[in-house]
Specification:
The protein is an alpha/beta fold and 377 residues long. The strands form four sheets. Strands 6-5-7-10-11 form a five-stranded parallel sheet, sandwiched between helices. A two-stranded antiparallel ribbon has the order 1-2. It has a two-stranded antiparallel ribbon with strand order 3-4. The radius of gyration is 25 Å and the shape is globular.
Length: 377
C-alpha cells in the first residue's frame, strides 16, 4: 500500500538517510580535527628539540629561520652542527671588514642543512682566499624571484662587491606557476611569489588543496602525498620538457627578466652564477643554464659537475647517495671550482677596495698561491 507523501512513515526513511549522511560528515570532520591536533601537538613537542630551519614570511613565502644553533644526524651525511645568525644567514661575515664582500645567495644547496658550519662551498671560499669576506643566505625550495627578493632585502646592509647567485635545475619549474602546478618532482607545496605580466603575485601550486594546505597540516600532508604518488605512477612535467617547449621558454624568459633586472639595478656589483646540477642533469636543464649565461654582465662558473664526476670516478663520495645534495667533500670541490673561476678571471682583484688594490711586483691579475688548494679530500 502506498503511503501518502508527507506521512510520518514516508518521512522517516528520508530522515534516516539524512542522519546517516550527517553522521558520516561529522565523523570525517572530527577525524580530520583529531589528526590536525595530533600533528600540531607533535610539532609543538618536537620544536624545542629540532626547531624548523625555515619559517613563513609574507613577502618571500618562507625564509631561513634566524638564530638557530642545533645539532642532528642527517641520513646519508652523518652528524651536522647547524647555525644561523639573527637574519637567517648560514655565514655572516663582518660588514665592516676591509675586504671584498661576497654575498652567496641560493636555495637548499646554499642553505646546506646536510653539512656542518664551516664545511660549505662558501666557507671554502673564505678559508682559502683571505681577501674575501663571505656572507651566505640560502633557503630550500627557493626560485630565482625569491633569490632576488632576498637579495634586495639584505643587499644594502652587506653592500657586496660580488654577488654569487647559486642556481639549480629546479629553478625553471619554480619560476612558473603552470610548470610548478604540473610538477610532481619540484613542487614545494607552498605559497610563493611568481612574476606574471610584470607583477608579483602569490599563488599556491596545488589549487584548491593548496588553499586548504595553507591552513592545515593534514591537507598539506595530503598534498605532498598526492604529489609523491603521482610522481611514481604518472611521472612529472620535467619528463616532457625539452628546448623550445613553450612552457619552458616562458619560464626561461621569466628567469632572464628576474636575473637581468637585478644586474641592471646593481650595475656596480659583479654578478656570478653557478648551477648546482644533480647527478644526471637533463638536456633541458643544461640548455636553461647556457641560455642564462647569455645575459650581459653575468659571469658563469662552469666545471663543478665535471669535477664532481671525476671525484665519483675516483671512488669518492660527494653527496648523500639517495640525496643529490653535496656532502662536505662535494662542497669542497664546488668551492674550489668557484674560487678558481674568481681568481683566474681576476674578479676578486678587480673588486678590491682602493686601499688594497695594489699587486705585488710581477704578480698577474688573478694569480694566487691559494689557487692550488686541494679539492679531493
Amino acid at each position: 500500500m502506498n503511503r501518502p507523501a508527507g506521512s510520518p512513515d514516508a518521512v522517516r526513511p528520508v530522515r534516516r538517510r539524512a542522519f546517516r549522511v550527517l553522521t558520516v560528515v561529522v565523523s570525517v570532520i572530527v577525524t580530520l580535527c583529531a589528526l590536525e591536533l595530533l600533528i600540531r601537538a607533535g610539532y609543538y613537542f618536537q620544536h624545542p628539540l629540532r626547531p624548523p630551519q625555515s619559517i613563513l614570511d609574507r613577502q618571500l613565502g618562507w625564509v631561513s629561520a634566524p638564530g638557530l644553533e642545533i645539532s642532528y644526524d642527517k641520513k646519508g651525511y652523518g652528524p651536522v652542527n647547524y647555525s644561523t645568525d639573527a637574519h637567517g644567514f648560514r655565514r655572516a661575515g663582518d660588514t665592516g671588514a676591509e675586504k671584498v664582500r661576497l654575498f652567496a645567495i641560493g636555495d637548499s644547496t646554499t642553505q646546506a642543512i646536510q653539512v656542518s658550519d664551516g664545511k660549505t662551498y662558501f666557507d671554502h671560499l673564505a678559508d682559502n682566499d683571505e681577501r674575501l669576506e663571505v656572507f651566505a643566505y640560502g633557503v630550500g625550495g627557493y626560485g630565482p624571484l625569491q633569490h632576488r627578493l632576498a637579495l634586495e632585502r639584505h643587499i644594502d646592509r652587506i653592500d657586496p662587491q660580488i654577488v654569487l647567485w647559486q642556481l639549480c635545475a629546479n629553478d625553471l619549474i619554480n619560476s612558473d606557476f603552470v610548470l610548478e602546478s604540473r610538477s610532481n618532482r619540484s613542487n614545494n607545496h607552498m605559497t610563493r611569489p611568481f612574476l606574471e605580466d610584470g607583477r608579483i603575485v602569490f599563488r599556491h601550486p596545488d589549487g584548491w588543496l593548496g588553499s586548504l594546505a595553507v591552513l592545515s597540516y593534514v591537507f598539506r600532508r595530503l598534498a605532498v602525498l598526492r604529489g609523491s604518488i603521482a610522481k611514481r605512477t604518472v611521472g612529472s612535467i620535467e619528463n616532457e620538457l625539452e628546448p623550445e617547449h613553450p612552457d619552458l621558454e616562458r619560464a626561461l624568459a621569466t628567469m632572464k627578466t628576474v636575473i637581468s633586472g637585478a644586474i641592471r639595478e646593481e650595475p656596480d656589483r659583479v654578478f656570478v652564477a653557478l648551477n648546482a646540477f644533480g647527478n644526471d642533469p637533463r638536456e633541458f636543464e643544461r640548455y636553461v643554464f647556457d641560455e642564462l649565461c647569455e645575459i650581459p654582465e653575468l659571469h658563469c662558473v662552469t666545471g663543478i659537475e665535471q669535477r664532481l664526476d671525476e671525484a665519483r670516478a675516483a671512488g669518492l663520495v660527494v653527496d648523500g647517495g639517495f640525496d643529490a645534495h653535496w656532502n662536505e667533500r662535494g662542497h669542497a670541490i664546488a668551492g674550489q671550482t668557484i674560487l678558481d673561476y674568481l681568481q683566474t678571471r681576476g674578479l676578486i682583484d678587480a673588486s678590491l677596495p682602493s686601499f688594497d688594490r695594489g699587486l705585488e711586483a710581477g704578480q698577474e691579475v688573478g694569480d694566487s698561491t691559494l689557487a692550488t688548494a686541494p679539492i679531493f679530500r
